Amino acid sequence: MEVQTFRARSMQEALQLVRRTLGPDAAVLQAKEVGRGAMSWLTGAREIEVLALTGVQLPSRFADSARDDNDATGWSASARDDESLDEPGDESTAPPPIHPWDYRAKFRADLRSEAGDLPSLVEQLASSPRAADRLDLPPPLDELLRQMLQAEIDRDLARDLIDRVCCHATDQELADPAMLQLRLVRSIEQEIQVSGPIRIAPSRPHVVALIGPTGVGKTTTIAKLAADFRLRKQCRVGLINVDTYRIAAVEQLRTYAEIIDLPMEVVSTPREMRLAVDRLSGLDLVLIDTAGRSPRDGVRIQELKSLLGEARADEVHLVLSAAAGTASLIHATQRFRHVGVTSLLLTKLDEAAGPGGLLSLLRDSQLPLSYLTDGQNVPDDIRVGDRHALARMMLGLDSLVTEAYRAA
After folding, report:
1. What own/partner pairs with CB < 8 Å and gap ≥ 24 does 133-138 have?
2. Which of 10, 233, 393, 408 is 20–30 Å from 401 (CA)?
3. Claim to verify: residue 41 and residue 128 sit in the same structural domain
């Protein structure tokens, strides 16, 4: 019971070779598409490799020995007669051309054209979520995949990005690692939505609330925004603090307010919130600092929703720490979004070990990114969300990111 390897230009030829060598009782263990020749990564030349053996009971594509020997392919008549299959020579129903480097789509198309919709071990291998991991990648693409995994980009998302690069890259780009990396950066940018900075309304105060879990840096971020709009943009800014649960939280924001010379209100009920907003109605911008809530505390999150309803907030920024795990970030987003979140504000990028994990958060939440912070300095260390700079940062291109990120 020896496993043998067969290679051919198509799946049909490979299976016919197996049938002639091992007989109709042979079982296919694995099938994959591999490069043909030493320069296959450049030329795109591919062939099918099949592992098969006899003497075991495994699903097989071969017809039993009673089948007509003239049927060289060995497929069942029902598969050949299936009306869903394209008729030979019918150009109107011919499938669209597949890029030679779109390895997964090409492999699956070959299987469908050879075997219709018959279930088999080969088709299961082709449709497996990790099938792409078993297919050989040309060196430039393999390096991109390694780069993304090292940056902690989710494996499934990394494979999707590789597929996108393959489908849209030109032949010249496929032979140039630098061009492939640029194509990858652009693909990641497409996954990132940005909302831009806070925009002041000319006729009334623009009310902005920051919410989120405990310890993510909401109060420091409020101080950065307040200092930027007051000192740099010369806007009239007021503060409202509803963080009455944490010790010294009010005093911390009050200290910032006194340094920047800003009016500040402290509230604890929805009614007090409404009155505080009315008292600050003559200003350009009102920033609301809220108490950190656990994503699992549904009661406190509902209280927060009531408070913000009375504040009639124009923007609600969900503040999350980039240093947290991807699963906890996604969970927090799902729990807080019912409060009326309009955008994400990511803090502590300087503490994040693998910023690539943020890509899964942005894709899952479908929320735009407003600001990024990367330090404790007030009013510095805060930038408007920039998809190009963040995409490069996610790939670990620190030396290239610094100039663009700091200039944003």
Report:
1. 133/159, 134/32, 135/32, 135/33, 135/34, 135/103, 135/104, 135/107, 136/32, 136/33, 136/34, 136/35, 137/103, 137/162, 138/35, 138/40, 138/41, 138/42, 138/101, 138/174
2. 233
3. yes
Structure-token match 């099949």, residue found: 50
Within this chain, do residues 120 and 221 fall inside the same structural domain, yes or no?
no
Please tell me whether residues 263 and 122 are part of one structural domain: no
One domain for residues 259 and 378: yes
Residue-wise pLDDT tens digits, 344-378: 999 988 888 777 888 889 988 899 999 999 888 88
Q: Helix, strand or coil for residue 344?
A: strand
Please indicate, yes or no, whether residues 82 and 162 belong to a single structural domain of this protein.
no
pTM, to two decimals: 0.63
Range with the largest mean pLDDT of 53-57, 107-111, 308-312: 308-312
pLDDT level of residue 96 (50, 70, 90 thresholds): low
Pairing relationship of beta strands 4-8 and 382-384 according to DSSP bridges: unpaired
Are 230 and 349 in a shared domain? yes
DSSP state of 194: B
Determine the pLDDT at residue 198: 92
Q: Are residues 130 and 172 in the same domain?
A: no
* Amino acid identity at 64: D
